[in-house]
Each structure stands twice: as C-alpha cells, then as structure tokens.
Design brief:
It is globular, with a radius of gyration of 20 Å. A hairpin with a 7-residue loop joins strand 16 and strand 17. It has 1 helix and 23 strands. The protein has one helix at residues 3-16; strands spanning 50-60, 66-76, 93-101, 109-116, 122-124, 130-133, 136-140, 145-150, 154-161, 167-168, 174-176, 184-201, 204-221, 227-237, 242-250, 255-263, 271-273, 278-287, 294-303, 306-312, 318-321, 327-337, 343-351. It is mainly β. Residues 1-22 have low confidence and may be disordered. Strands 1, 2, 3, 4, 5, 6, 7, 8, 9, 10, 11, 12 and 13 form a 13-stranded antiparallel β-sheet that branches.
Length: 360
Amino acid sequence: MTFSRRIAAFLLSLLLTPAYAADRVDYPVVAPGASIEFPRDEGSHPQFRTEWWYVTGTVADAAGATFGFQVTFFRSRPGVDEANPSRFAAKQLLFAHAALSDPKRGHLLHDERSARAGFDIAEAAENSLNVVIDDWSLRAQQKGYRATVRTPDFQLEFDYLPTQPPLLHGARGYSQKGPSPEAASYYYTLPQLRTSGRLTIGAREYKVTGTAWMDHEWSSSILDEQAQGWDWVGINLDDGGAVMAFQMRDLQGAEHFAAATIRDGGSAAPVAFAPADIEWSPRRRWRSVRTGIEYPVEWMIRIGTRTLTLRPVMDDQENDARGSTGTIYWEGAVEAFDAEGRRVGRGYLELTGYGRRVRL
C-alpha cells in the first residue's frame, strides 16, 4: 500500500470511528498449568491484552564489521468499543520498533511503526507466526523465521534458523512478574538462532551472519501497581547455553520481584531461579543528552552461584518510541563476562521505567 493510501485510510478511520466507549473487558488470566504448543502458540493470542515478539542479536560481515539489531512487534487489545461492527474500530493495535547498534557510529539508528489491524496494512495471525505492519514483517518459514524491516536509515532482511528446542521460562512457560501470581505472562525464548541475511546502511550493503535471540510473551497483567519498570537481559552464551534474567523495580527503584532461567550449553533442561537467588547491582551509569534520563548501562548480576558482568558495546542505545508505544527506554547490545573477566556471551539488555513509570 502506498503512503498516500495509508494516509487516506487513516483519515477515513478518524471520520468513521465513533468515540471510544468505556467497555468492560474481561481479559484472560495467565495461570500456571497451561500447555504451550508449537507452532500454534507462535501466533497471536488476541484475547489477551498485551503481546510481543522480540528478536535481537549480533551479526558481522566477512571483514569483521559487527552490528547489534532489535526487531520488536507488539500487539495490544485496548478493550474499547468492541461491540462496534465497523472495520475501522480499533479492536487490535499493532506497533513495531527496529534499531541498529553500530559501534563505529556510536549512536542508535531506530524507527517505529503503528497501525490498527486490518485493511491489508497490519495483522498478527493466529496459530502461526505472521506479524506484519506495512513493509515490516516477522514470519515463520518452512525452516525457521524471517524478519524484514525497511527504514530511511537502514534495511534488514534476516533469516533465523533454530538450533535447539524452545526455552520455557518459569513454570513451563508461566512466568511470574511480581509477588502476586496474577502479574504474569506466558513466556518462551528461542535462543541461539543461526542468523544470516542482508543489512543495508545508507548506500552500503553487508552480507552478514551471526546469532539471534527470539522472545514471545503474552499477558493481561504484567505490571502490578507497585512496579515502576524492569531491567531484563537475554544472553546467548558462547558455549551454546542461554541466560535470561529480569528484575521488576518498585516505585522507589528497589527490587520488587526477580526471576531467571539458565540453560547450560549442551543441555536441553533449563533451571529456573527464584527472587532470592538473583541480585542486580549497577556498576556504571550513562545520561542521555537528548532526554536527560540516566540509565545504569553496566551491571553485575548474581544468579545462584554464577556471576555475570554486562558491558554495552556502546553507551548511546536509547530508543525514543514516543511516536508509537509512548515509551522511552534503553535497549542495547551487550557482552557478558564471567567472574574472571573472560567474555562468555553476547546479548541484549533492556532498561525501562527510568524516565517515568512504564504503562502498557
């Protein structure tokens, strides 16, 4: 669809869509014991309030030029005016963020998209992975997945090939996000994705290979009233293992809840860790000259008996997404080091709620 057709459809929707009605929507509750099935649950779960598909990783060309990347699609069920039969009623909203970390450039290249589902502009299919906003997409293929993103500054078309089974977090995919069991999501990861494709920055094209990490979460209540935001990391370990850890922070900035999952290299059996087993300690901070927000960009994390130090490949990886999801957050490529200072993996660190409380 051309840009002019998209604008026309948007303006028509404003004219034809009635004012939002204050419907009461009973969203499904995330509860222990549900069975996550593949490939069915790779698709959308439109009855739930919030959902996202998140792909990050590191790629390099034959000359050694290295880049970090993020591609995230969000689906939201706003729960307003759901009885309206109009195709223009905003029953499902889709958003997408894409970012590229180039250490030689020193700052993030990023873009965003947003649309209501429908009209051949945006969709999040059920039962199989097929999420689209205009010319951005994340889709399942016969072997693996493909992401396509086109922005004024960069373009990417990457293929992702699974090398190990999905990693279910928490209790077989039920991932608690706060002291209350109702603050939870269904959550799984595909770590160690073998990645290849084309990356274009300006007029220069790179053929790249590397490793990626894909998350998929859906929920109706991730944040409780006491949570300000979260710190999260996903690491592909150099030995083939994977580490996921997060802490929810309270309104005063202290730990509100924490969880982690580790799959050691060569093992398909993950180990889940409780809040008492996890400690996040900031080591260095960076302040954005654009927003004035200060982020702890370097961390030491204790998970059980294991300690990891996270260091960013560059400090300026702030993503200003106020044009779509209304958020400003730090999302960046990092390297992980063990207690002896040896690099043991690469991944992505996400820091939210530092400028203001996260609202989903």
